[in-house]
Fold each of these.
Amino acid sequence: MFQFTLRAARINCGHTLEEVATACGVTVRKIKQYEKDSGRMPRNIAAQIVQLYRISCDYIFIGKEKDCAQYAILTFFSDDDYNQFVKRGRIESSFQFFHQLLEDYNDFEEGTSEEEIRNIKAFVFDNFKLQLAIAIKNHIVCCGQPVQVQAGYNLENGEHTIRVDCTCCDHCEQIKTLPTVKVTQASRQGVC
């Protein structure tokens, strides 16, 4: 069964560390510690968190974050990486790169169903879009004002998007995924 790390669950639910700490009556430092090793979290805090996140405790990985099977793809980029993508004007290329990287990723435990793999990849890409959207909102301005950012997914055509809107004028930009290209050994070597 796919399980979320505590940090991934928080990010996916759209909560900040500060919000979770306040709701649980603990410090931000404690929440960070629990996210690194949820096995050390007291039951009462765990109960508050699953209620806040509206998720069954069965879907929360208990233990050290780095031991979670999905941790490798969930932490491919750091918060600073997202900020650098935005500051260096690499939003669209990072979006395309990570989408292709995730499509090609296939290091799952034996017996993981295709549906579970699709769900894991969708969850991971949603987290990527959310983190990139946060970095965009923190670093991009239009007309001297912060922008509004929305991440989306079109069920009809399978297209992922990030939409950036100016809060003053009608300026809008959309970043979309390109059609998925499967990379084969032959195409890596330039053989057609």
Amino acid sequence: MEIRSFDTYDEKIYYLHPELSPDTPIYKYMDFDFFLDMVKRKKFYVSIKREFEDRNEKRLPIKQVMPFRAVGGHLFKDKTFVEDEVNVYMDRSHDFDEIKEWPVSCWTLRSDENYLMWKSYTSKIGVRIQTTIDKFVDSITPNDYTIYCGKMTYCGYNPSQTIKELAFTKSHHFSNEEELRFYFEPQKNSCRKELSDSIFIELPMLLNVNCGNVIDEVILSPFIKDGAADMICDFLNRTEDLAKCSIKKSNIRI
């Protein structure tokens, strides 16, 4: 998934994979407090790639992406040390170390509610929001990032993949997520330096967003009791920034 396989879209520096269209519906499960930050404070929570639990998000999966293995503390291929391949690995590792510091936002293309995603990505009080790719990108201010948007592939890792292909790759065990991912590459040197030191930055990291026309639908978690869900729906329906939004309770009954 090289940069050239993306299409530049609109005024932002924004690369959209050709298999997707700007009006593709996307969905995100999130806790209610992050949702309120988005609506009331116009702040959208994003993770840093290295903060994910999957260890392959934190470091280059050497066993899968390089054709040599460690034996007795030395690197061999067919019992012969290959210095050039080690140098290739070091270069790729350096590039990966940069990408793992990028902010990232994970969504799903699954239009149906999913019980396991409710359990995995929200606490008891959570929501699922729906928007489109272009609405989400348009909402982000300022334009300090180059944005890469693409579907995750679940083919596993191999030596022929580029760094950006690795960034959009996961193990087949995650395939039921049907994940769509946005990466935010800092454009400015000052912003890049800040991210390189982001281990010292207090998380969560928040992007400024204009929420007025972003959210098309909000579904409340099935784990919220009916009485509380009715009160939350009433509160959200009276929220000005959600005036154009459909708000409803989950179709899943627990």
